[in-house]
């Protein structure tokens, strides 16, 4: 799994398994077959395409938009949660 500990300016598309321990200043789109683990912060939206998977352990400032992927929230989502998600005990949806 690839990982990033620093700051990524702008939006990104995740096409392979990726772990973010830093920050993305834009949105993150997770494509089919990819897995994204957020331990840091995303300032924009998180968009899961069908067949993708994401785990939010850190802070998502924008919306979590699940378009038929698998979303687990254990951290904080400050925007709206759109679509299905597994919400872990202690998670915060604001």
Word description of this protein:
- The protein has one domain (2-84).
- With 94 residues, it is mostly beta strands.
- It is 0% helix and 49% strand.
- It has strands at residues 2-4, 7-8, 12-14, 18-20, 23-24, 28-30, 35-38, 41-42, 46-48, 53-56, 59-60, 64-66, 70-73, 76-77, 81-82, 86-87, 92-93.
Number of strands: 17
Domain count, please report it: 1
Helicity, in percent? under 10%
What structural category arises from helix and sheet content?
Answer: mainly beta
Backbone CA Rg: 11 Å
Proportion in β-strands: over 45%
Which sequence of SSEs, written as H and E, runs from N to C?
A: EEEEEEEEEEEEEEEEE
What brief labels describe this structure?
single chain, 94 residues, mainly beta, six-stranded parallel sheet, 49% strand, globular, Polymer-forming cytoskeletal protein
Summarize the structure.
This protein is mainly β.
Describe the secondary-structure layout:
Elements: E1 2-4, E2 7-8, E3 12-14, E4 18-20, E5 23-24, E6 28-30, E7 35-38, E8 41-42, E9 46-48, E10 53-56, E11 59-60, E12 64-66, E13 70-73, E14 76-77, E15 81-82, E16 86-87, E17 92-93
Parallel strand pairs: 1-4, 2-5, 3-6, 4-7, 5-8, 6-9, 7-10, 8-11, 9-12, 10-13, 11-14, 12-15, 13-16, 14-17
